Amino acid sequence: MAEVGDEPTALPEGGQNAVGQAIGLIGDEWTLTILRYATAGVRRYNDFLEQLAISNSVLTNRLTRLAETGLLEKVAYQERPPRFEYRLTKRGRDTWPILLSIWAWEAAWVPEHAERLPTMRHTRCGHAFQPLLLCGACRKPVEPRDVTGDFGPAGGWERSVPAANTRRRSNSGSTATPELVPQTMALIGNRWSAALLGAAFLGAHRFKDFERSLGAPPTMVADRLRTFCDLGVLTVSPGLDRSDWLSYHLTAKGRAFFPVIMCTLDWGHRWFRSPEGRALIYRHTECRRTFTPRLACDQCRDPLRGSDVAVER
Description:
Layout: E1 9-10, H1 18-26, H2 29-39, H3 45-51, H4 56-68, E2 72-78, E3 83-88, H5 90-93, H6 96-109, E4 119-122, E5 131-135, E6 147-151, H7 157-160, H8 182-188, H9 191-201, H10 207-214, H11 218-231, E7 234-238, E8 246-250, H12 252-255, H13 258-271, E9 272-273, E10 280-284, E11 293-297, E12 309-312
Parallel strand pairs: 1-9
Antiparallel strand pairs: 2-3, 4-12, 5-11, 6-10, 7-8
Helix pairs in contact: 1-13, 6-13, 9-10, 10-11
Pfam family, one: HxlR
Protein name: HxlR family transcriptional regulator
InterPro entries: HTH_HxlR, WH-like_DNA-bd_sf, WH_DNA-bd_sf
């Protein structure tokens, strides 16, 4: 019998789709941090507690949620008294391209961090590397301009936005957030931020485009656009038709976040499936086939596997 996390989750018809599920999980900084340590071999509750500046209540909440959503499996390793450890499932291990893409983007584009991000070394060629985004069909490197996308049968903004309570990023109380990847969380750690970034990659430029696509309050859209401009992810300029109609465009920094988005959506579509079909469909314009992201070493150009990446301090 397949264990939880070894088979895709069937989502209810008409409900939240794979995009909403994936962003709701990945857009939580404690979840990312726990996955990072679990990937490094941490399994037991007390070990997580010792290595993370986290409260018992927050750790218990996140471990429970990760087990319920099939990323971790809770396994007894002692009977008297009962003790459990949390092992990565196939679904949990499959998040490594997301984690790798996030670390690479933060290392390249965000100079300030609470702690130094690790160096990634490709064990097959021996070099420190940056992940290179490839088309899974033709194996050629891709940029955002090389990929077109639109909603699929299970798509739509309403179904793709994470639930409001999937992200709590408050520094109040005894436990602050880890602040390991602060700008990543500014982009996907808020339900409207993630949706606005998706709209930008799908071609939205004007305020009205974002407002219409997201169905969010104008004040929220204005706040998110201002935040993205402050982060250097978007740049604003006068519109071509009217100078008072501002136009927002992704910067080089914003476009460099593309692998994070693509790997997150690909993971979500693999592990959360709506009966109507995919939420988003992307196509590589050069080979004209469905775009599936793959990561390669930028030094030797060989495709990456999670087991081939060594983390160095």
